[in-house]
Amino acid sequence: MDFTGMSRVRALRLVALAFLIAGAPAAHAYLDPGTASVLFQAAIAGVLAALFYVKEIWRRVKAFFTGEERRSAPDVSDRNP
Amino acid sequence: MSRDAAVGGSFRDPSGFVFVDSGTLYRQVNRSYRGHYEALIASGLYRDLVERGLLVPHEEAAIGLALSDEAYKVIRPQPVPFVSYPYEWCFGQLKAAALATLELQRIALSKSMTLKDASAYNVQFIGTRPVFIDTLSFERYEEGAPWAAYRQFCQHFLAPLALMAYRDVRLGQLLRANIDGVPLDLAARLLPARSMACLPILLHIHLHARSKPVQAPSRPRDKASHRPISARAMMALIDSLRQGIESLRWRPEESIWREYYRDLSYSDAEVARKKSLVSEFLDLAGRDTVWDLGANTGVYSRIAASRGIYTVCSDFDPACIELSYLDACRNDERSLLPLILDLVNPSPSLGWNHAERSSLVERGPADTVLMLALVHHLVIANNVPFGHLAGFAARVCRNLIVEFVPKRDPMVERLLASRRDVFPEYEQGAFEAAFERRFTIRRRDAVTATGRMLYLMTSKKPADPREGSEPAAFQDRVAAAAARAST
Q1: Rounded to a whole number, what is the distance in Å from the CA of A2 to chain B's nearest CA?
Q2: Which pLDDT tens digit goes with each residue over B327-350?
Q3: Is the residue at B394 inside a domain?
Q4: Which residues of A touch B243 (CB under 8 A)?
């Protein structure tokens, strides 16, 4: 299990809850969802990168002790459900 | 000639457009895209993606074919055998298309390029394999830049898949009403609260939907006014989306139609006879393309597909198509394309000027159509008169393999048990008379002791999907339909 990542996930969920309570925005013709999406992306990308980093370290530590080879990212081209 | 001659769905992207010349599909690449195109080739990304089967291959064609003087190159992409749309895909197909798009973006980033759009319409299926068809979607990546297609990816893939997995698989049909994907605020409202327990769904749908829209600036603003997103953070974002997609699962419940074959009213010997007749008729009919309409899980589609004939296996039941798709993946069936199609309400032409997405009929005609154990459902359960059914068949195929199921068959008796029999004309003679107005009956064979009949018919005149309008060459229509898939 990825315990190091879990606490960050919880922290992120709390931030998320705050967002949700803030209420849904109204849609308007001159409001620009594209820019909002970019700002949102920039806000979460840093946190996701940190999570990703922690997970990567955890995987390497685990691989070191279990002697498992480091798996490369899965390849979708030969993977069908 | 100008861009006006481009096919209906190909007008948004200033980088180029798709057009058809003498039945062949071309893509004009404009000078504004030159740098990106050169980077796509020089970086080795194009070759890598084509080798992995993720991107449709193309050849460079004569520049003289260009339709306007903005042209930098003209390319000839390999055509897709049958163009299908996300609202016709089952859950597994939409998921495979989503994962393929993310994999493309991951590989592109590793070669310093990025996808500028992530429309589900940029993916087509060749058999069970999702293939990206828009060669002009790749741009050079500059570190710090956001993923411009992030919202589009969430709308086209993550939101519909989450709705199908968490709520109801039929919500995939929202893609038919929303041509640019399911709006995230709508998805967030329809998803159950428990979907928030999945971090990627919480982030990329629920919170993303609530990210505060900003007032569009009255003057063009500096585009880099957001915090730069590092390459590592970009990979993390893509990976989080991948985790979100992979976490979504849908398992078909026991569907009535799945049980159909277990509950047949005829014997094993009669099933074997029907299969051998279908094989024999297929050998006599056209062998280019087959559409099996009302295919259930595709038992008879597979007779055609196993002969190497590219076969569209369609049914209105998402569970049947999911099972058919999963089987096709397991057995590596390359000539079978399972699709969700409701014949009573088939896919219409959609989008701007009714021309961005083609209707089912516009994507035909097929060489051969199979209508097995279907006529009684359309005529008795849906009140479609024989004449209308024959008219529809004549629009979509040249050869027809059709089964007539008489009233004394137990399956028809079951249909009639719950409704008033207002179908006095439902008998073999009237069926044949209606179809003979448009088709020549070439073979007529009994399948069961209850009087089920199997027919091979050939259309009396070339099928024309646009009845009443100028007939166009078949190849032109195929190419035009293929071209309309591209945005």
Answers
A1: 14
A2: 999 999 999 999 999 999 999 999
A3: yes
A4: none
Tokens of A19: 């967002």
**B449 and B306 fall within a common domain:** yes
Q: Which of B105, B203, B215, B222 to mutate to test the interface with A (most CBs of A within 10 A)?
A: B203
B68 and B189 housed in the same domain:
no
Decide if B211 and A37 are in contact by the 8 Å CB cutoff.
Answer: yes
User: Model confidence over A7-25: pLDDT tens digits?
Assistant: 555 655 555 555 554 544 4
B139: tokens are 């741009």
In angstroms, rounded to a whole number, what is the distance separating the alpha carbons of residues B56 and A75?
Answer: 18
Asked if B334 is an interface residue toward chain A (Cβ–Cβ < 8 A), one would say no
B482 phi, psi to nearest 5 deg: -65, -40
Domain containing residue B43: 3-77
A48 touches chain B (CB under 8 A): yes
Q: Which residues of B touch A11 (CB under 8 A)?
A: none
ipTM: 0.76
Quote the Cα angle for B91-B97-B101, to 5°.
Answer: 145
Instruction: Kindly report the length of chain A.
Output: 81
Instruction: Tell me how far apart the alpha carbons of residues B85 and B103 are, in angstroms, rounded to a whole number.
Output: 20
Q: Considering the domain boundaries, does residue B481 fall inside one? A: no
